[in-house]
Design a protein that fits this description.
The chain is about 60% helix and about 5% strand. With about 110 residues, it is mainly alpha-helical.
């Protein structure tokens, strides 16, 4: 089993890879998680996030939950105005990259 610190570092790497891929997309194109998944075999959903895999049963102790002061649930992802929800609600790749950078910032500071 990996340590929490390793999972955070792996999550940071995961988001960096997704951001790098998304930056190469037309910024005006609509966001498409399946396109990302097909291209790099990753997306912003729980199955690809080391922290989500660790805390999938109860997000209460996830560093992102504690840092953001939000409650994560399997059904809604991150609640409120959390960094992840901003990624999820992005309509274009430009919006997605901007929101994903916020998510990366949170991961780097949690």
């Amino acid at each position: 089993m990996t340590t929490l610190e390793q999972d955070i570092l792996n999550s940071i790497s995961h988001w960096k890879r997704m951001i790098a891929w998304a930056r190469d997309q037309n910024p005006k194109d609509p966001v498409d998680s399946l396109r990302m998944e097909t291209s790099i075999n990753e997306s912003w959903y729980a199955r690809d996030c080391p922290l989500c895999q660790r805390f999938i049963v109860s997000c209460d102790l996830c560093p992102l939950t504690l840092y953001q002061g939000r409650y994560h649930t399997i059904k809604t992802g991150c609640g409120g105005d959390s960094a992840w929800l901003q990624v999820e609600l992005a309509l274009t790749w430009r919006q997605w990259v901007k929101a994903a950078r916020k998510m990366l910032y949170v991961l780097q500071h949690c």
